[in-house]
């Protein structure tokens, strides 16, 4: 089972026993226990949960609505001395059904990219051997991991900043490590991928997902990265789902007005969905429409259903995502999803 999911109340003025609290969390050095020790003064707590992957937003869930009301009144907009003097932004939040979990059983999971039928999406099975997989895992395991709220990451080339969903192009961390050179060479000579020969991939994000942990729906920021995004899956399988929203929805992640939509993407206009199974050692390419116009995400499941077969997530999945940092504005054909056009 994934973590409980919360969203903005449907009606203004609707009370709830849960609070969405922004500006505190693990990314600013405050543990769930630190936060609980402040909020428990207003009533019995059910728990403190990460609201998203930012590490700066949490859900504080009370047993009683009155406790949430009292905490909101006392703490909203105030700087909180027990939490390092941080000024908390608080609103009500309601528990959502888990549409991602339920609906993923309804969307058929394709094994091949041609079955998914999204232009620009490619999948190559067995792109690397089991020995190469082992070597890549060993290489990253002897380097330091950065812990996010639910998964660990490593960045090479340029650091990816989750708060702005972008990279700092002025801060280059150096070349990509030599242990990925054979992979990069193979990508440039792989006949499945057109137009790749002249592209120098210069940013690598390594993600390590424990079982049951996925990734929220997102489009990699257009202005941050060029067209081709490669993701190599190692160690364990997962499914990746895709959503194409009718109206587009590029939103800056840092704007407070965007929070509800990010927290609860189901609130947005209608979307169509597809899914693909990503086995270990496969290489996925998102390009063109698949990269620019479809949200991709990994459901927070411990078990995936693929063609009626139950597939258990392994003790971890590690992915290597290779991208090319963009210089200048994005000029894609999908302005409704593009931050360069806002
Ligand atoms: O883990 C993956 O395969 C995808 C990662 C991803 O979408 C991202 O880092 O933007
Ligand atoms: Fe992504």
From TrEMBL:
<dbReference type="InterPro" id="IPR012677">
    <property type="entry name" value="Nucleotide-bd_a/b_plait_sf"/>
</dbReference>
<dbReference type="InterPro" id="IPR032857">
    <property type="entry name" value="ALKBH4"/>
</dbReference>
<dbReference type="GO" id="GO:0032451">
    <property type="term" value="F:demethylase activity"/>
</dbReference>
<dbReference type="InterPro" id="IPR005123">
    <property type="entry name" value="Oxoglu/Fe-dep_dioxygenase_dom"/>
</dbReference>
<dbReference type="GO" id="GO:0003723">
    <property type="term" value="F:RNA binding"/>
</dbReference>
<dbReference type="InterPro" id="IPR027450">
    <property type="entry name" value="AlkB-like"/>
</dbReference>
<dbReference type="InterPro" id="IPR037151">
    <property type="entry name" value="AlkB-like_sf"/>
</dbReference>
<feature type="domain" description="RRM">
    <location>
        <begin position="17"/>
        <end position="95"/>
    </location>
</feature>
<dbReference type="Pfam" id="PF13532">
    <property type="entry name" value="2OG-FeII_Oxy_2"/>
</dbReference>
<feature type="domain" description="Fe2OG dioxygenase">
    <location>
        <begin position="200"/>
        <end position="326"/>
    </location>
</feature>
<comment type="similarity">
    <text>Belongs to the alkB family.</text>
</comment>
<protein>
    <submittedName>
        <fullName>Alkylated DNA repair protein ALKBH8-like isoform A</fullName>
    </submittedName>
</protein>
<dbReference type="GO" id="GO:0016491">
    <property type="term" value="F:oxidoreductase activity"/>
</dbReference>
<keyword id="KW-0694">RNA-binding</keyword>
<dbReference type="InterPro" id="IPR000504">
    <property type="entry name" value="RRM_dom"/>
</dbReference>
<dbReference type="InterPro" id="IPR035979">
    <property type="entry name" value="RBD_domain_sf"/>
</dbReference>
<dbReference type="GO" id="GO:0070988">
    <property type="term" value="P:demethylation"/>
</dbReference>
């Amino acid at each position: 089972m994934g973590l409980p999911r919360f969203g903005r109340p449907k009606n203004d003025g609707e009370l709830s026993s849960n609070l969405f609290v922004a500006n505190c969390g693990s990314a600013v050095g405050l543990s769930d226990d630190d936060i609980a020790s402040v909020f428990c003064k207003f009533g019995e707590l059910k728990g403190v949960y990460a609201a998203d992957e930012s590490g700066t937003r949490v859900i504080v869930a009370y047993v009683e609505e009155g406790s949430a009301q009292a905490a909101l009144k006392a703490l909203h907009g105030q700087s909180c001395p027990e939490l390092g003097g941080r000024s908390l932004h608080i609103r009500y939040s309601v528990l959502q059904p888990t549409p991602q979990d339920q609906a993923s059983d309804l969307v058929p999971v394709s094994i091949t990219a041609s079955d998914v039928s999204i232009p620009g999406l490619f999948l190559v099975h067995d792109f690397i051997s089991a020995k190469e997989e082992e070597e890549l895992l060993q290489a990253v395991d002897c380097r330091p991991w950065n812990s996010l709220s639910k998964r660990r990451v490593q960045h090479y080339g340029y650091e990816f900043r989750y708060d702005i969903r972008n990279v700092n192009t002025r801060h280059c961390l150096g070349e990509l490590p030599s242990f990925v050179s054979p992979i990069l060479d193979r990508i440039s000579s792989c006949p499945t991928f057109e137009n790749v020969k002249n592209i120098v991939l210069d940013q690598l994000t390594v993600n390590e997902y424990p079982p049951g942990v996925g990734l929220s729906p997102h489009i990699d920021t257009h202005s941050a990265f060029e067209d081709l995004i490669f993701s190599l899956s190692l160690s364990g399988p997962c499914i990746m789902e895709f959503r194409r929203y009718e109206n587009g929805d590029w939103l800056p992640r840092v704007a407070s007005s965007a929070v509800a939509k990010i927290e609860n993407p189901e609130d947005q206009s209608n979307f169509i969905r597809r899914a693909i199974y990503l086995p270990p050692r496969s290489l996925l390419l998102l390009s063109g429409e698949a990269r620019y116009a479809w949200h991709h995400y990994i459901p927070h499941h411990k078990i995936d259903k693929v063609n009626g077969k139950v597939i258990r997530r392994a003790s971890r999945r590690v992915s290597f995502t290779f991208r090319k940092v963009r210089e200048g504005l994005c000029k894609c054909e999908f302005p409704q999803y593009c931050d360069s056009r806002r």
